[in-house]
From TrEMBL, chain A:
<dbReference type="InterPro" id="IPR029069">
    <property type="entry name" value="HotDog_dom_sf"/>
</dbReference>
<dbReference type="GO" id="GO:0005835">
    <property type="term" value="C:fatty acid synthase complex"/>
</dbReference>
<dbReference type="GO" id="GO:0004312">
    <property type="term" value="F:fatty acid synthase activity"/>
</dbReference>
<dbReference type="GO" id="GO:0006633">
    <property type="term" value="P:fatty acid biosynthetic process"/>
</dbReference>
<comment type="similarity">
    <text>Belongs to the enoyl-CoA hydratase/isomerase family.</text>
</comment>
<dbReference type="Pfam" id="PF01575">
    <property type="entry name" value="MaoC_dehydratas"/>
</dbReference>
<protein>
    <submittedName>
        <fullName>Acyl dehydratase</fullName>
    </submittedName>
</protein>
<feature type="domain" description="MaoC-like">
    <location>
        <begin position="10"/>
        <end position="93"/>
    </location>
</feature>
<dbReference type="InterPro" id="IPR002539">
    <property type="entry name" value="MaoC-like_dom"/>
</dbReference>
TrEMBL record, chain B:
<dbReference type="GO" id="GO:0006633">
    <property type="term" value="P:fatty acid biosynthetic process"/>
</dbReference>
<dbReference type="Pfam" id="PF13452">
    <property type="entry name" value="FAS1_DH_region"/>
</dbReference>
<dbReference type="InterPro" id="IPR050965">
    <property type="entry name" value="UPF0336/Enoyl-CoA_hydratase"/>
</dbReference>
<dbReference type="InterPro" id="IPR039569">
    <property type="entry name" value="FAS1-like_DH_region"/>
</dbReference>
<dbReference type="GO" id="GO:0019171">
    <property type="term" value="F:(3R)-hydroxyacyl-[acyl-carrier-protein] dehydratase activity"/>
</dbReference>
<comment type="similarity">
    <text>Belongs to the UPF0336 family.</text>
</comment>
<feature type="domain" description="FAS1-like dehydratase">
    <location>
        <begin position="7"/>
        <end position="137"/>
    </location>
</feature>
<dbReference type="InterPro" id="IPR029069">
    <property type="entry name" value="HotDog_dom_sf"/>
</dbReference>
<protein>
    <recommendedName>
        <fullName>UPF0336 protein C1H84_11265</fullName>
    </recommendedName>
</protein>
Length: 146, 148
């Protein structure tokens, strides 16, 4: 368990990377029930003026919180979690690759303490999330009950 | 056709309840690449004080998007699902979701803003158990992009 009194604002909790390929998006579509074809059909995605298939914003949001869940040791301690989806995470399907084991797009995450509330004993973790050198989530913040 | 601005303030009552299954939590956790043992292993979850495996922090999106589907499917809404982009999302958990919960979601249309030729629609799902216990509040904004 994390000792609240040892935490400091600005403290870096760690970094994490998540890779996402087309097979991951099919799996997330099935698990979540979000079958919007922009997340699995390239022709359709391009017809609605997207660069290619893009990851579900909720895939990215769902994947990057693992850094916080594992840091605190209890995923149930995340009492509030929010983000803005600013840039799509494009997931390519290059010729000659197997969509199931292609490394795909790498999402990079860094978590740091954004705020502490001593009375409520909560910590706000601010996540910086980028892919291909661009921030893809903004104001990505998780409040953890300690 | 644009989004119908008269939707603001509309409430879509909870439909059928959602039964949270242990395998669904495991499936969703795997699909979001979550690694905490408490999502997969009942003993690990019990050590943290839960009765059964605990859902990842974004699991409630399943229930929230089912509620949103009522709005999107409503012919009065004017929303073309293929032009919907998720703009922002927030989860406030009153208590963690665990396997065995039976959930209801009431959907509120809180705001509609015109964004250029498109529109941003903000909905809120109030998620409770069938017994009335508050579980989570989710707020989603969807950008409906205009046809060129």
């Amino acid at each position: 368990m994390i000792a609240f009194d040892t935490l400091e604002k600005g403290q870096v909790l760690g970094t994490h990377t998540v890779n996402v390929n087309r097979a991951d998006l099919v799996r997330y579509a099935g698990a979540s029930g979000d079958f919007n074809p922009i997340h699995w059909n390239e022709r359709f995605a391009k017809e609605v003026e997207l660069p290619s298939v893009i990851a579900h914003g909720m895939f990215t949001m769902g994947a990057v919180i693992d850094l916080v869940s594992t840091w605190v040791g209890n995923p149930g301690a995340v009492i509030d979690y929010q983000t803005r989806f600013t840039k799509p995470v494009v997931v390519e399907d290059p010729e000659g690759t197997n969509p199931s084991d292609f490394e795909g797009t790498t999402i990079e995450v860094e978590g740091k303490i954004g705020a502490l509330d001593a009375q409520a004993r909560t910590a706000r973790v601010d996540l910086t999330v980028s892919a291909n050198g661009t921030k893809v989530l903004l104001k990505c913040q998780a409040v953890v009950q300690l | 056709m644009g989004i119908n601005p008269d939707l603001v303030g509309r409430i879509y009552p909870a439909g059928e309840s959602y039964q949270v299954g242990r395998e669904k939590i495991r499936e969703f956790a795997a699909a979001t690449k979550a690694t905490s043992p408490a999502h997969y292993d009942v003993e690990s979850a019990r050590k943290l004080g839960f009765n059964d495996v605990v859902a990842p922090p974004t699991f409630a999106i399943i229930v929230a998007q089912r509620a949103d589907a009522q709005l999107i499917a409503d012919p009065a809404s004017g929303i073309d699902f293929s032009r919907v982009v998720h703009a922002d999302q927030r989860f406030t958990h009153h208590r963690p979701i665990v396997a065995g919960d039976e959930l209801l979601a009431e959907l509120y249309v809180d705001q509609i803003r015109e964004m250029g030729a498109g529109a941003m629609i903000t909905t809120r799902a109030e998620i409770t158990t069938v017994g009335g216990e508050k579980i989570a509040t989710t707020v989603s904004s969807l950008l409906v992009r205009a046809e060129d």
